[in-house]
Write a structure and sequence with these properties.
- With 123 residues, the chain is mainly alpha-helical.
- Helices cover 64% and strands 0% of the residues.
- The protein is built from six helices and no strands.
- It is globular, with a radius of gyration of 14 Å.
């Protein structure tokens, strides 16, 4: 679930209701449990995520909060993610993080309402 949880976590951090709604519903439709979905925001304290998912979530948070951290993504977060993902997978994860942040910002800027999304509406 690392791409789905990354999209959901970035959307939560950015306050993008539309994307939070979308990625929660899409993940649930794909079979993700409500427990895991509900705990994405508290992944550090949750016991339901693998070490690989935790590494992806940490990279997502640091990549999303670039403006809040002078150093951006730490070497430790990158090295930890690299333990679980090869170069191609890391590139895909970085693209996912960057793209969801762009979509979050666009939706927040135009105040896109949340709640009416249907699973795979744009598929």
């Amino acid at each position: 679930m690392h791409h789905g949880s990354s999209k959901l976590r970035a959307s939560q951090i950015n306050g993008c209701g539309f994307c939070t709604d979308m990625h929660t519903k899409d993940a649930a439709h794909a079979g993700e449990t409500s427990t895991r979905l509900n705990l994405v925001a508290a992944w550090r304290e949750a016991t339901v995520f693998t070490d690989a998912e935790r590494a992806a979530l940490e990279l997502t948070e640091q990549g999303t909060r670039i403006a809040d951290a002078a150093g951006g993504v730490t070497d430790e977060a990158w090295a930890n993610a690299a333990k679980y993902y090869d170069e191609e997978q890391l590139a895909a994860l970085v693209c996912t993080i960057a793209l969801i942040n762009a979509f979050n910002r666009g939706n927040v800027i135009v105040q896109q309402p949340a709640g009416g999304y249907q699973p795979h509406q744009f598929a």
